[in-house]
Specification:
Blueprint lengths: L22 E3 L5 E5 L9 E2 L6 E2 L4 E4 L8 E2 L4 E10 L5 E9 L22 H10 L12 H4 L10 E5 L9 H8 L1 H15 L4 E6 L3 H11 L5 E6 L8 H9 L14 E5 H13 L5 E7 L7 E6 L4 H7 L7 E6 L6 E2 L13 E6 H4 L12 H5 L6 H9 L3 H6 L10 H5 L6 H20 L1
Parallel strand pairs: 1-14, 9-10, 9-12, 10-11, 13-17
Antiparallel strand pairs: 2-8, 3-5, 4-7, 5-6, 7-8, 13-14, 15-16, 15-17
């Protein structure tokens, strides 16, 4: 019987339109905008100024705190200016804007296609290398990877879990990466195991990817301590707490991190980036991004330099469909509508979904009928209908008491609501307000 989590979950249409599209290398753009805050935590501090010349892989912004990440230039050229640009969230953020001149790389970065299996670095050196190269989680949260490997005193990591689920509809970047660069993903997994000090890794992949499961299972035979597990298809199986429950049947306590149950979770794309950082000395300056949609001429998976305008991906996939009603950064369940198509690709950009106009409009909201569907599908055991009400009335202390901070923003409640209540919107607003309330108490 296939493994899965037990509580809640939904089954949205998968729409993996680009799953058979091999990864294409997108040409380097003429100009990039590289935000200094592409990660969870404090923004990085710029090290360059207008007029400076930079190379590919050069450090251009230094991490701004313990939870932060270095930023490296994805291109070579001249710094045009430092300015605020609109990012995928719709806010203006500081970015380093670079005019591209050629493609000159920093010395020491191995650009060959040779696969390096032998891991020379020790545990401490691996953590330092991930810090140095600006590696963050590529599954969405963009948490600095070196911090994840620094297990707190009194805690013990027992197992590394690699998230190859990619349960969000439409997105296929991890699917293609595991198919095309599976050996590098596994070497990256071994590096993470060494960095954590564990001898066991579990790779979870949903059963709608039989080609990936077969390929990775065969490759894993050559890697001691790594096993591949087929999982039942159920959203949001890629959320780390649900994946932990599915694979090792342990529940992360409310308000706690996976290390509480001996687990550390990393995305398959992160494992590949770890491989490139440690074995190739390559910073995180590019990633695979899915550009897709039902009206898109050529749904694709692109290897893209950070800072590339989203418009470049759209053009490479056949142009903007005439019936486009909304562009979403990410997938339809957890993604957010883009205010502009000129936003840059960042480390956390997994996909861009161009949604046809007929599907892009929300349906009319009606009164909650207390059907309980939102409770049934919530994978965290919350009561979304109640949380919506207390947030509407700005009763944030009640929202905190009802464990709103446990919400993983998967959108399952929003998806299933027959009254079209804007549940996810209110949950996000409530989490932000409660988070501020909690930080205020600590001051």
């Amino acid at each position: 019987m296939l493994k899965t989590f037990k509580l809640g979950g939904v089954h949205p249409a998968e729409n993996k339109l680009s799953k058979d599209s091999p990864i294409e290398v997108l040409p380097v753009p003429k100009r990039v905008a590289v935000p200094v805050g592409q990660h969870l935590g404090a923004p990085a501090v710029p090290l360059v100024k207008k007029g400076d010349t930079v190379k590919v892989g050069q450090l251009i912004a230094k991490s701004g705190g313990f939870i932060s990440a270095n930023i490296h230039s994805p291109v070579s050229g001249k710094v045009f200016k430092l300015d605020n640009v609109i990012d995928a969230s719709g806010y203006r953020r500081q970015a380093i804007i670079i005019d591209v001149e050629g493609d000159e790389w920093e010395d020491g970065i191995d650009r060959s296609a040779d696969i390096k299996k032998d891991i020379a670095l020790d545990q401490k050196s691996i953590i330092n290398k991930l810090n140095e190269k600006g590696i963050v989680g590529l599954g969405g949260a963009t948490f600095p990877s070196h911090v994840k490997l620094m297990v707190p005193d009194g805690k013990k990591a027992e197992v590394l879990i690699i998230n190859g689920v990619e349960c969000e509809p439409y997105l296929t970047s991890d699917h293609r990466l595991m198919l095309e660069r599976g050996e590098e993903v596994l070497i990256g997994t071994k590096i993470l195991m060494k960095g954590l000090g564990v001898n066991k890794a579990m790779i979870g992949i949903e059963n709608n990817k039989p080609d990936v499961i077969k390929h990775m299972t065969e490759l894993a035979k050559g890697f001691e301590g790594i096993e591949v597990y087929a999982l039942k298809v159920k959203y949001p199986q890629g959320a780390e707490k649900q994946l932990i429950k599915a694979l090792i049947n342990r529940e992360v306590p409310s308000g706690k991190l996976p290390i509480e149950v001996g687990a550390v979770v990393n995305n398959a794309g992160t494992a590949f980036a770890v491989y490139e950082a440690v074995q190739k000395n390559k910073p995180l300056i590019e990633r695979v991004v899915t550009l897709t949609g039902k009206s898109v001429e050529k749904p694709s998976n692109f290897q893209v330099r950070v800072g590339t305008p989203v418009t470049d991906l759209i053009e490479a996939a056949g142009g903007l469909p005439k019936d486009t009603g909304k562009a979403i950064g990410g997938g339809p369940m957890m993604g957010r509508a883009l205010l502009s198509l000129d936003v840059p690709v960042v480390k956390g950009t997994s996909g861009i979904l161009l949604m046809p106009d007929e599907q892009a409009h929300r349906r009319a909201v009606s009164n909650c009928i207390r059907c309980g569907k939102c409770i049934t599908v919530c994978p965290m055991g919350l009561e979304p209908w109640l949380l919506e009400k207390v947030v509407m009335h700005e009763d944030f202390e009640r929202a905190e008491a009802e464990k709103i901070m446990d919400c993983i923003e998967c959108g399952s409640c929003h998806y299933t609501c027959p009254a079209n209540r804007e549940l996810l919107d209110y949950l996000r607003v409530g989490k932000s307000a409660v988070g501020k309330l909690m930080r205020t108490r600590k001051k």
